[in-house]
Amino acid sequence: MKKILLTGGAGFIAHHVIRHFLKNTDWEIVSLDRLDYSGNLNRISDMMNEFDKETQKRVRIVFHDLRAEVNQMLAADLGEFNYILHLAASSHVDRSIDHPMEFVLDNVVATCNILNFARQQKHLERLIYFSTDEVFGPAPDGINYKERDRYNSTNPYSATKAGGEELAVAYENSYHMPIYVTHTMNVFGERQHPEKYIPNTIKRVRDGELVTIHSDETRTLPGSRHYIHASDVADGCLFLLKNPNKVQELPTDFGGAKCPKFNLVGPVEWNNLELAQKIAKAQDKELQYRLVDFHSSRPGHDLRYALDGNLMKNLGWEPQVSIEERITQVVQWTLANERWLKL
Q: 28, 134, 232, 318: which one is catalytic?
């Protein structure tokens, strides 16, 4: 039986990864988390109700703040792993603008600490570092960034994720570690923090309140994203772990660059007004909205992000459920579980 360590396991994306892996593998899972503002053990507890007691026993929860190294006592307690998925991160752009050093500690120092722990592993088959589309910066119309395009971080959050990504590359080059990097963009799903756009919009539509839509300075062009459900992100990661031979068949990168990178991309690009309208439609309510120019007043909010998902598609993976179905699913689930809309 394989054993996998997920950092930030009580976070939004990671708890969906735990759920997906419980359903689709027989692996033992360890969740490592410090339980800050974005971590919530109730996510895991709520999700685990879907499984029988024997399946629940495959999950173990360990508390640790990765801003501190994984010392010998903790390393011995954790044991050996076949896979490590490093999802723990601070991810809110506004918070990073107000408190950049916190993001350096959470996203760079913590990444170095988990990499140091990983390089002591004797049976490690793969470490996946979760990066973000935001390392590439805003995407002009018609441009979808590929995995190895240049960085253009526009806020401390994206800069620190790029820093962690470069550490992952360096550790593969220096220590010959088996590392992948994934870029995801605008992940949504059940039990997401209510400050995020989709749950916040669900709540505002439900309550008949005004929804603010991120737009350009003319307040006529809404920002756009490729949205992807957290379960699809988990599925893409599992595909990568289970199909190493397909990755080995990839053509050699320019300059012989190692540490393969993969974009996990939603199937369609929607602007934020379209998305809000679909959320309102799923509730059979009229959308009340206002276009707001966040970017001019608050630097760091980029109008458009876009990734190219063709590499994963050519390997044989893409989301299997339509984005419309996913949005409806999340809206209906959230309205039936309203406690997840409370701050």
A: 134
